[in-house]
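Suppose you are handed only these lines of text.
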Amino acid sequence: MNQFELESLLSGLPLGKLRYYGKVTSTNELAARWAESGAPHLSLIAADEQTQGRGRLGRRWLTPPGSALAFSLILTEVKAEAALAYNALGALAVCDTLNQALPPMLPAQVKWPNDVLAQRKKLAGVLAEAHWQGDRPAAIILGIGVNVSPVSVPPAEGLNFPATCVEEVVGAEVDRWGLLRAILEKLLELMPYVGSPDFIRLWQMRLAFRGEWVQVRQEDGALLEGYLSGLNPDGTLRLRDREGHFTTVQFGEVSLRPVDSSSK
Ligand code: BT5
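From them, the structure of the protein bound to biotinyl-5-AMP can be written out as follows.
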């Protein structure tokens, strides 16, 4: 891949400007700088390798060369409620793209708020970062990392959730750049609906662990356990405790995992 090939791969899509790099620190970091210097809406940065790929809250996202997708889309025309729904937009676009290749009983799903799982393992992560101007978001940097070939899957130690890659779940070789185009097409198709009742419905349909007992680790480290009943109309998560009381989990530093049935 190179700049010229990226432009021809994505020709015809209603995107802004495009930039391709072989190796970057983080596509989100570069995109943020580009947004500040006036990148048009829907400009895209894609890279083969990241040396300081970011997850949430200073966590790392690993992108070794030749094996994964790492890209960031700059959105300057954004709705005010922003980041949570845009994380879902990225995750749903990846899910829906993969689900065209996966058998219906093994669908890719969204682990609220920002991960894509297949076979209950993480194969993509989304990081939507809002950049504010006063009290309104001037831009959202929507960063997406997808593990495509097995080389992209980090060693299990050091991971906070089991990981996999697209080729493993599809069971065949996958055209990495063809997948980029397909995800972007899906993203552009879903974007007008961000935050709408239809969008929340689609998100809820794709929600991993719905109807299961889960643990949510909150910002202060406290663990909340509950039955994952679904989403509220604003995309926050609804948990029910054993007494039947509902709790809303806000977007923030939460990490969600199924409760090990043996420990119940
Ligand atoms: C995420 O954070 O999952 C968001 C990842 C977003 C990455 C994209 S790539 C393009 C753009 N540019 C960037 O710099 N970032 C975005 P979080 O939920 O915090 O998960 C991070 C955790 O996932 C780490 O602490 C590891 O445990 C695990 N992890 C790291 N690399 C992984 C990989 N390649 N596959 C699966 N898990 C990984």
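What can we learn from it? Residues 114 and 126 are 5 Å apart (CA to CA). The radius of gyration is 18 Å.
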